[in-house]
Amino acid sequence: MTHHADPLSATRAWVESFVVGREVCPFAGREIARDSVRYVTVEAARLEAALLRLMEECWHLDTHPETETTLLVLSDGLADFDDYLDALGLAESLLVEQGYEGIYQLASFHPDYQFEGEAEDAPRNFTNRSPWPMWHLIREAGLERALAHYPDPEGIPVRNEARMQALGTERLAASLAALRGAAR
Questions:
Q1: Angle, nearest 10°, between helix axes 169-180 and 156-167?
Q2: At residue 125, does pLDDT exceed 90?
Q3: Which pTM does this prediction carry?
Q4: Would you say 105 and 143 are in contact if contact means Cβ atoms under 8 Å apart?
Q5: pLDDT value of residue 5
Q6: Where are the domains of the chain?
């Protein structure tokens, strides 16, 4: 696998090889094919600036209906998962405060993602592990349309957990490490 030290390059490769390639998100392939996914690097060392950039991406989505979703790749900051979770909470609160509740939602991804109550090395965690910390800004209306046409949307997490279990932690970790390359 190719090493991607650049956060955007690593993220694009992860989306194509893991999210779409392993069908972790059954809706992502369509958006990749439509070129409706926006990738943005956000300097996260200064949280206020990162939160402002999140708002700018909301405004971008407001005025660009052809863009379905934005992946905000958080470089240079928030490498610690607990710090990332704190920042995510602020970002989610900001969306509500700015009137975007029900319009956009944030999905969260991090190289050290760990579901509450899961062991650190549980394969399930890899459904939300990415090469770089990331906020995925999603149009709720688009998500609702996709879910309405998908059989058994409630089964997606169960199916993904089984797929991750079949791949195993060692293989998943190696794949993610290869994408991160020397960047981490």
A1: 90
A2: yes
A3: 0.92
A4: yes
A5: 66
A6: 7-183
